[in-house]
# Entry
Amino acid sequence: MRARKRRRAALPRHQKQYRGLAPGGRSDRAQAGAAVCLGSRRNPRLRSRCRSLRLPGNLSETGDPVVTPPGQENPKAVSSTEYIQENFRPSDRLAILLRNRAHTVQRIVSAARIAEPSFEEWLHDKNDKELYDIYVGMNALKPGARTRTKEDIHTVRHLYLDLDEDGPAALRRIRESNLVPPANYTINTSPSKYQLVWRVENVSPVQAEAMLRAMARTFGGDPAATDSTRVLRIPGFKNRKYETEFLVQAEKHSDRVHQLLDFPLGTEPSQSEVRPRRPRPTPRLSEPRPLTQSEHDWAYAKRALARGDDPEEIVRRIADYRADDKHDPLYYARLTVSKAQAEARASRERTPSAWTAGRDLNRDP
# Structure
């Protein structure tokens, strides 16, 4: 006698497509993130190689489109370690800036140290638990540098463009332009905001800043991000500036190191961009102009120096106070204190007693 065939319960029409799926709880299913091999024993021709599953090439994890420059159809996603190792020499001294709502911390260390697992773990701990944003200076500092000023720049490694308004449209304009070469990296820093990075060599800080200003002027970049001491976000860390966290991602398009001649863009503003200045109206003596916050900071720095406070502590206080409204509060604070120190020296040479007058004015930041 033949065994009776076991009848299966009929499947609804919309479930027939899932007939071939394995039941849940199987121990042989692939783990999340594991490499997946195509093919089977019945069709070995499909078994070419194993690959990790990836999102479509034109879509980031956050849903923002990734705009690929011309001639770079297969961009490569890079980790934070790869980004540091590919953009700097191991001996380069770099500024690492950490900033949250309450504090700003700067460390100057070698690129080799930044790429070490222990240092990266420390950065991730600061980013995840203490909500610090993580930045790196894009140009190498002098061997003995302890600060990040223009005088401390040793070698210009990069040109960059910060696209914080209408980012996708700005990317398209740059892609279609022949005034600049394709960027080495496109960094998605927040929804619809990008940074472009070009690797360069044999470029002086003065030449670099002239080109940065020209690119920002031509393509609508942030004019505040045009100095050679600029810090940019490191891919692989979360942007903590907004209520909803955003994972900063970078795509590498090229290994090429550019020369200044690769940028046909002129560095001088055209006549149409030079607007004549209107004469400022003379303020009435009866209506004194209120001080700006920068002037308050300047006055505070002078008072604090006069009473003998540590300059580094003054820098920290001003940077903490201006953390919310300055793109780089530490650089701003250090520049303010440096100028106040210079004026103090000049004032002492002229009239030694004048510097101590009026030291107890206004509030501390």
